[in-house]
Fold:
Amino acid sequence: MSWFYPFLQAVLDGILTGSLYALIAMGMALIFGVMRIVNFAHGAFLMLGMYATWVIFEYGHVNPYFGFLAAGALLFAIGAAVYAGLVRHIPVQAEFMIILLTLGVSLICVDTVLLVFGADYHQLNFPLLGKNFRLGSQISLNAPWLISFGIALLAAAGLYLFVMRTMFGRAARAIAQNPYSAPLMGINIHRVQAVTFGLGAAAAGIAGGLLLPVFYLYPDVGHLFNLKSFLMVVMGGMGSIEGAAAAGLVLGVVESLTSLYWGNEWALVVDFVIFILVLSFRPSGIFGSQRA
Amino acid sequence: MSDHGNPPLLEMNEVEAAYGDFQALFNITLTVNRGEIVTLIGANGAGKTTTLRVISGLLRSKRGTVKFQGQEISKTPVHEIVARGISHVPEGRQLFPYMTVEEHLVLGAYVDRTRPKIPRLLEEQYAMFPRLKERRKQAAGTLSGGEQQMLAIARGLMSEPKLLLLDEPSLGLAPKLVDEVFQKIQQIGEKGVTVMVVEQNVVDGLSVSSRGYVVENGAILLQGASSDLLNNAQVRAAYLGL
Structure:
């Protein structure tokens, strides 16, 4: 049984990481599902959420477990503004232009942060970080990861219920399923899409705030998450937010087990092998058909 | 006169419209009065669907005026036109394939005016379309063609329109269902909703309406009481093969 506890530990760690992946991917899936836009600024939005939380911790001494709320609000505003100011003026058919646009937004965010805060790595330092929560003698879970996990779960559930149960969510799903007839219901497409873009960005911002205590911070940190969240959206079935969430949890566990058995440096390799396999054999995703 | 007293519900005056370089409407002038059912007939590509798209705002006219209850609406956004009381049931039903019947109906009442009345409006539609009540938890994509058409019409009624635009409601339906659809249109008219229906099914379309317009090459060719149009030699030759 000597293999069991390390395995269980890795699976649990993977679920903790995966919950943040899930939240990030849900934000991207929401934007993709409703607008058919792959938002390549998603990682940059996550990075902005991390920096926002870090700034108010460093200068305002606000605990990041409250600070993430401000990051979410800020990113909601930025997301809605990017939609209203830029995305909505590009014709729907011009997919390539949208890719360039979101990449451009991403570059602007990263370079602005680089100019303002420099290229240094930062890490939070507060007493909670070293604390661990022990389960029996063999398993221990890092306290800030546990808290981030709990909040990410709540945020993900909240986002899911908002999309599935409210009139706003119905309107967003109507646009996803039939953009031609949605306005005939009286839906103001541009307003709903601006809010959707804002919510997707806010999910990244909140995830960034929750990631900050357990990760390190530098201007290009979002780059990695951009690719990963795109991978999770594809795995989840392009545009399905629950599929993306499931993919996030799976990816977290797979990475954690890869690190345990093969070493950390293989985690990204395994991610992209999975990505290629999914694209080759199940391009409509593992967890569901195409829908929002 | 249209600008005082009680103007017609809808007035289109010399409307022109185009898809890019392709001009689809050259001169559409028509009126719809409160409480009537008006049919637009004409061949494929004559401009019937385009006329409805201009009224509901899905397509912007190039020239001419569109007045609803005496107010110009040709620059009003689609969602505001719905809020003012025009409901467009598009050709091919255009449902949301993964949503249930009931979700469609709830979305139909999206505008602020009807949101508080959703429970009552649902009951009204279920009373009129009992099949939809049986299937209320079913996804629209799994319904039969006739049920889908009924759902599209019921969804259109949820916004309590003053003017209901129906584009080819009988398209692709079996003859028995076609009869049922036209019965429903008659019932809707009897409830006081003004209806404008576009049809290629000339006999059924005209027999359910009081007046009709014949559209050809993007312009109104003929107009008159439906019974007169049904007996018109030109109409009989062109559309009924008589």
In short: The beta strands of chain B are 10-19, 22-32, 37-41, 63-68, 71-72, 86-89, 163-167, 194-199, 211-216, 219-225. Residues 35 and 49 of chain B are 22 Å apart (CA to CA). The first helix of chain B runs from residue 48 to 56. The mean pLDDT of chain B is 94.
